[in-house]
Amino acid sequence: MQYLEEILQPEVQAFIRDHAHHDPYALTLQAQKYSHLPIQSIAEQIGARQKARYKLPEWYQTDAIVFPPGIPLEQSSSEITAKYKSTLVNGGQLIDLTGGMGVDTFYLSHSFQQTDYVEQNTELATLTRHNFQALGQPGIQVHTDTAEHFLQNWQGKADVIYLDPDRRAEHAHKVFRLADASPNVLALIGHLIQKADTTLIKTSPLLDIDLAIQNLRFVRKVYVVAVDNDCKEVLYLLRAGETLSPEITAVNLSAKGKMVQEFSFTRAQEATAVVNYARPMQYIYEPNAAVLKAGAFKAVAIHYNLQKLHPNSHLYTSTHQVPSFPGRSFKVHHSCTYNKRLLRKLLPEGNANISVRNFPDTVDMIRKKLGLKESKNTYLLATTGPDNKPIVLICEKVS
After folding, report:
1. Residue 305: pLDDT above 90?
2. Around 132, how many Cα atoms within 13 Å sit in the side-chain half-sphere?
3. pTM (predicted TM-score)
4. Which residues lie closer than 8 Å to 278 by C-beta, 6 or more apart?
5. What share of the chain is helix, strand, coil (3-state, %, to 5)?
6. Statement: residue 365 has pLDDT above 90
7. Cβ(205)–Cβ(224) below 8 Å
8. Nearest-angstrom CA–CA distance, 61 and 82
């Protein structure tokens, strides 16, 4: 592979290290100055490394890693979420049918005795084989093939098959339905269940969870994964035998990779939960993005013995602090109507962080109307109370 060979030249590697923080586009404009070097490929590597610095720190810090330019890096899992996946499954053999850049393959491989990576793009597969060796995992078997062809012709039964279907259509716009992704997982379900004890599928967080459970049929567990309260992906764990109400786990990881918050429930528990509604008490709770995406609107209230402010607000309240709540917690100092004069009086310094849940005005509208600047400690929560009237809570965030 010519691209790989030219990037690995000692002079090119040294140039990339020396210009690690330079603007890649500016370097391409100076191509004549570096006519003896493949400056376009170098600029692609520098740009990719800059993107990978926080997304894939271990790869960024490993000598001789060559990043694929463009879409593969954009579509790859982060190191944080890939490491989390490696805690969910283990066994003798793993097959990654949609290898791509190999991030998930690499971290999942630590939990298996044998790992097979499948990728239909020959150049990407060659580059990834090199990176596996650079990362100290040369034993991963690399197969240049389509997921469909490999699965149809492979004889045996794996412990786990992993898929992260390509969510880009032929004309490069993103798609979110399982049937529109490549490979079409729905068409492969029979083979997947037959040829692996467990199948783990990664999807976009925009995919409807209940529809995916219905279509995939054999879902035992669902993992909604967020990093620093930003929902990144949803994982579906499949095993033979249908499950009426699979367990759904909402996970919020920190950027350092540690588990911050986790909450599990089933749709049956959510459907039968009966919550009470109340005006704001001493403490207010706002669920994290994973809990909200998972749809644990009532189950979370029952589990933590909380009352809700309103059916559509998804804010909760209690008289005593619940330290383990999966989201942000606030201590309420004032609860009042949405009145400019009153709020300015309660916020004499004119500073507050603003959060809106089920409220007629947006954050920008409130900030402009009240003339508020950002604050380190004071929070203004605008929402709707149990009487269907707008209310504003002035709070401080608690650990």
Report:
1. yes
2. 27
3. 0.93
4. 307, 308, 309, 317, 386
5. 35, 30, 35
6. yes
7. yes
8. 17
